[in-house]
Amino acid sequence: MINQSSDMKILLGSLLAMVSVAWGMGVSATGGSSGGSLPWVIRQEAHYISGLLSLALMSLAMYLSTRPVWLETPLGGMDRVYRTHKWAGILGVSFAVVHWLVEEVVGDILKAMVGREGRIPKEKFTGFLEVMRDLAKDMGEWTFYFVLAMLVITLWKRFPYKPWRVLHQAMPVLYLMLALHAAMLAPTDYWTQPVGILIALFGAAGIYGALYSLAGCIGRSRRASGTVAAIEQPAPDVLTVSCQLDNNWRGHRPGQFAFITFDDKEGAHPFTIASADRGDRSISFQIKVLGDYTRTLSKRLEVGHAVKVEGPYGRFDMARQDSSARQIWIAGGIGVTPFLAWLDSLQQAPNQVSADLHYCTRDRTNDPFVARIEAGCATLPGIRLHIYGAQQGETLSAADVAAAQNGSRRSEIWFCGPQGLAEKLKHELGCIGQGRFSFHQEAFEMR
């Protein structure tokens, strides 16, 4: 069986459980919404709990957008922090949909079925507070429609990245509108209960994230400037960019990634660092053509071009390997990049690691990385290289991976490549492994 990281599920599940328990304590303490018939009471409490869950998840997503480095260790890297950010946002909008449906659709159904009698009496407010509550209600509705549209285009992968990024920059403002909506429309008695404390805590975390983002502070302390030192194009769809950075660069561990800005209008894009840290503040990236931005990059870059690099981030790090376990490294396509940095760093200590490196490529004959990998492994006696070319009829199977165990009781698999290949191997190895394999994979998807 393969041991997969469940930190994200634990975090999200714990948050949902915490909010649900606090809401339940409030219902138990006050008897729930009073003054109405049972159908209307159930509808009202469903409205409250869905709103609370949406607020908690959206607050978490907003806080995680600040790239909190302290969460890299518990969550397994900044790539997983962003994956958690993504799913917190998706779930938050999903609960917002439920919140809206309960308010609008279920309300209309109950009016038709049981009539208006038995509806929960509304709390009465006057003056400025009444005006603010009306405004907060309108803001909540406007925010709902916008974030629902954002969810649709986020899941629609064909929607161009650049306009999505521009629209996504509005999220901090929308969150502040959501926070006002929640604070103003929460029942008054919530503020004397645990659920009120949670609303305040989640709201504070989310507001911090929103203001931090609006102030342009995200990643500022980990940002370095520099210039493009060299450009190569080893293949039509691959660009090698080497950069020389200033004294703000704090160095990196092999396997980490950074956010690179070549053009302020385009914004930052994440790329894995493909070179070892030699203490001279020089780094290189292997950039594969995957979209409109990377397709035109070779025409827009030249030596001396100014760059901004933010990082490093990530936990795809040899230092985290279990020395008592057999090491199996699997790279697919451009997923070879972190392993290039690993091989580069091992040149200083060639006998330090023993591992099997499996590299899957479309065409091993014309692949620009094959020669570099072979040269890197040639001086490392502990690394056994296996290359699979799809056009040559060679494919990596779970049996190939299991054979690399070579009698070892436990193995660590470090994988970077297409998600389809990862799922295939994890499924097959789960049938073979019987607890012998642990699987480490970068969740390198920022949208």
From TrEMBL:
<keyword id="KW-0472">Membrane</keyword>
<keyword id="KW-0560">Oxidoreductase</keyword>
<keyword id="KW-0274">FAD</keyword>
<keyword id="KW-0479">Metal-binding</keyword>
<dbReference type="Pfam" id="PF08022">
    <property type="entry name" value="FAD_binding_8"/>
</dbReference>
<dbReference type="GO" id="GO:0016491">
    <property type="term" value="F:oxidoreductase activity"/>
</dbReference>
<keyword id="KW-0285">Flavoprotein</keyword>
<keyword id="KW-0411">Iron-sulfur</keyword>
<feature type="transmembrane region" description="Helical">
    <location>
        <begin position="48"/>
        <end position="66"/>
    </location>
</feature>
<feature type="domain" description="FAD-binding FR-type">
    <location>
        <begin position="221"/>
        <end position="319"/>
    </location>
</feature>
<dbReference type="InterPro" id="IPR039261">
    <property type="entry name" value="FNR_nucleotide-bd"/>
</dbReference>
<dbReference type="GO" id="GO:0051537">
    <property type="term" value="F:2 iron, 2 sulfur cluster binding"/>
</dbReference>
<feature type="transmembrane region" description="Helical">
    <location>
        <begin position="166"/>
        <end position="185"/>
    </location>
</feature>
<protein>
    <submittedName>
        <fullName>Flavocytochrome subuit of an oxidoreductase</fullName>
    </submittedName>
</protein>
<dbReference type="GO" id="GO:0046872">
    <property type="term" value="F:metal ion binding"/>
</dbReference>
<dbReference type="InterPro" id="IPR017927">
    <property type="entry name" value="FAD-bd_FR_type"/>
</dbReference>
<feature type="transmembrane region" description="Helical">
    <location>
        <begin position="142"/>
        <end position="159"/>
    </location>
</feature>
<dbReference type="InterPro" id="IPR017938">
    <property type="entry name" value="Riboflavin_synthase-like_b-brl"/>
</dbReference>
<dbReference type="Pfam" id="PF01794">
    <property type="entry name" value="Ferric_reduct"/>
</dbReference>
<feature type="transmembrane region" description="Helical">
    <location>
        <begin position="191"/>
        <end position="215"/>
    </location>
</feature>
<keyword id="KW-0001">2Fe-2S</keyword>
<keyword id="KW-1133">Transmembrane helix</keyword>
<dbReference type="InterPro" id="IPR050415">
    <property type="entry name" value="MRET"/>
</dbReference>
<dbReference type="InterPro" id="IPR013130">
    <property type="entry name" value="Fe3_Rdtase_TM_dom"/>
</dbReference>
<keyword id="KW-0408">Iron</keyword>
<dbReference type="InterPro" id="IPR013112">
    <property type="entry name" value="FAD-bd_8"/>
</dbReference>
<dbReference type="GO" id="GO:0016020">
    <property type="term" value="C:membrane"/>
</dbReference>
<keyword id="KW-0812">Transmembrane</keyword>
<dbReference type="GO" id="GO:0050660">
    <property type="term" value="F:flavin adenine dinucleotide binding"/>
</dbReference>
<feature type="transmembrane region" description="Helical">
    <location>
        <begin position="87"/>
        <end position="102"/>
    </location>
</feature>
